[in-house]
């Protein structure tokens, strides 16, 4: 018996057996919650047994992997954009702001979630719970509105063309300031009584209280969804719709001009047979789809709670965390790595990490619009 107690494998086996026994017993998901956290737990969760420990382990592993990839990717974007002179443009300040927001979100949220997944409950107390949820709300909203501003910037350059008023450094900084201030306002509202931050059903993360039956509290969820989900989504779709429309019209004009001149194409290279509008349509579709996949699970969970359309289980609350944090992983890919000049700078400094962009990437002898887009992120 003494030897077994010193054996790490035996100790782990006994602990795991105890957890599985609890999972199959009549215990509830809140039995491991700290006493000082009990007042934040909605009675709804008392009906559910403990989650299978495998889910906690899987969640901790996935978040750890996402955190590592996100911190590496966004850290690289921040480093390259702040140290490369050719990338210090007003438009790229928005991309930099997006990378900073995603980097801070994963820095603040990934480590606590991994630790809590190991302990299978929130172990840092009520204040840390509120701060954790506030960080998720703040940086998530900043990322959402920054992506919207990036879409607007592209709309301004591509659709309005030379008639557009160029964005200056001061203009970009003012937009970033407005994003941070408005996002902070939505973040602190629950701390002053308009809704509140509570542990989620899996008890390892914290978020808004969508189970409160008070309509004053529910109104925050509705208003937040309108301002931080529906409005940005509509604006992004609006921007990319007219961007694709403008590029398609431009491509038609180029083809007609080429026919008049009896040449196959006015483009400098036809190595890629895909037309510009098809490329842009793919990028737009990817941008909108990834954005939709990232934030819709949280919206569904919150709306299901306030409108009581279905029963929310502790396991169901995991997906909101996973999908929203995954957004911080592919943002550097969509908005950073797809940027031709960023790829060139990455190739120059870290040749093993990047593919050098082709010299004729998105260039045109007859298009000022296509050329000017190269200064923007190409996603």
UniProtKB/TrEMBL annotation:
The protein's GO terms of the molecular function aspect are:
G protein-coupled receptor activity; photoreceptor activity
Kindly list the places in or outside the cell where this protein is found, as annotated in its UniProt entry. Membrane
The primary location reported for this protein is membrane
InterPro entries linked: GPCR_opsins, GPCR_Rhodpsn, GPCR_Rhodpsn_7TM, Opsin, Opsin_lateye, Retinal_BS
Q: Name one GO cellular component term.
A: membrane
GO terms (BP aspect): phototransduction; visual perception
- Tell me the ranges covered by the G-protein coupled receptors family 1 profile domain, including all copies: 73-335
What is the protein's membrane topology class? Multi-pass membrane protein
Write out the transmembrane intervals.
Answer: 54-81, 93-115, 121-152, 172-194, 221-249
PROSITE patterns under this entry? G_PROTEIN_RECEP_F1_1, G_PROTEIN_RECEP_F1_2, OPSIN
Keywords, A to Z, come to: Chromophore, Disulfide bond, G-protein coupled receptor, Glycoprotein, Membrane, Photoreceptor protein, Receptor, Retinal protein, Sensory transduction, Transducer, Transmembrane, Transmembrane helix, Vision
**What does the protein in this record do?**
Visual pigments are the light-absorbing molecules that mediate vision. They consist of an apoprotein, opsin, covalently linked to cis-retinal. May play a role in photoperiodic photoreception.
| UniProt record similarity statement | Belongs to the G-protein coupled receptor 1 family. Opsin subfamily.
What this protein is called in its record is Rhodopsin
Instruction: Specify the taxonomic lineage.
Output: Eukaryota, Metazoa, Ecdysozoa, Arthropoda, Hexapoda
Give the gene that encodes this protein: PglRh1
């Amino acid at each position: 018996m003494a030897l077994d107690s010193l054996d790490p494998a035996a100790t782990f086996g006994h602990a795991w057996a105890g957890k599985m026994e609890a999972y199959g017993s009549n215990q509830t998901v809140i039995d491991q919650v700290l006493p000082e956290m009990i007042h934040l737990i909605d009675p709804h969760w008392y009906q559910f047994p403990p989650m299978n420990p495998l889910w906690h382990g899987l969640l901790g592993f996935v978040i750890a992997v996402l955190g590592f990839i996100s911190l590496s990717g966004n850290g690289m974007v921040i480093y390259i954009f702040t140290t490369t002179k050719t990338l210090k443009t007003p438009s790229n300040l928005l991309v930099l702001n997006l990378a900073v927001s995603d980097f801070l979100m994963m820095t603040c949220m990934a480590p606590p979630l991994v630790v809590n997944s190991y302990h299978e409950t929130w172990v840092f107390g009520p204040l840390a719970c509120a701060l954790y949820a506030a960080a998720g709300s703040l940086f998530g909203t900043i990322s959402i509105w920054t992506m919207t501003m990036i879409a607007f910037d592209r709309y301004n350059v591509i659709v309005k063309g030379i008639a557009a008023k160029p964005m200056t450094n001061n203009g970009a900084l003012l937009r970033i300031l407005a994003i941070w201030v408005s996002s902070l306002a939505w973040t602190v509202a629950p701390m002053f009584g308009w809704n509140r931050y509570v542990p989620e059903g899996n008890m390892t993360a914290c978020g808004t209280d969508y189970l409160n039956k008070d309509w004053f509290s529910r109104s925050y969820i509705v208003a937040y969804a309108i301002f931080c989900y529906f409005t940005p989504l509509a604006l992004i779709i609006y921007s990319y719709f007219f961007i694709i429309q403008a590029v398609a019209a431009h491509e038609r004009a180029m083809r007609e001009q080429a026919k008049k001149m009896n040449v196959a194409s006015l483009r400098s290279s036809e190595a890629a047979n895909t037309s510009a509008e098809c490329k842009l349509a793919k990028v737009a579709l990817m941008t909108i789809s990834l954005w939709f996949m990232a934030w819709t699970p949280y919206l569904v969970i919150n709306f299901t709670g306030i409108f009581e359309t279905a029963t929310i289980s502790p396991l169901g609350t995991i997906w909101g965390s996973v999908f929203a944090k995954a957004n911080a992983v592919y943002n550097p890919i969509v908005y950073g790595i797809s940027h031709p000049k960023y790829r060139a700078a990455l190739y120059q400094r870290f040749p093993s990490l990047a593919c050098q962009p082709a010299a004729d990437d998105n260039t045109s002898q007859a298009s000022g619009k296509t050329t000017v887009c190269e200064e923007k992120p190409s996603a």
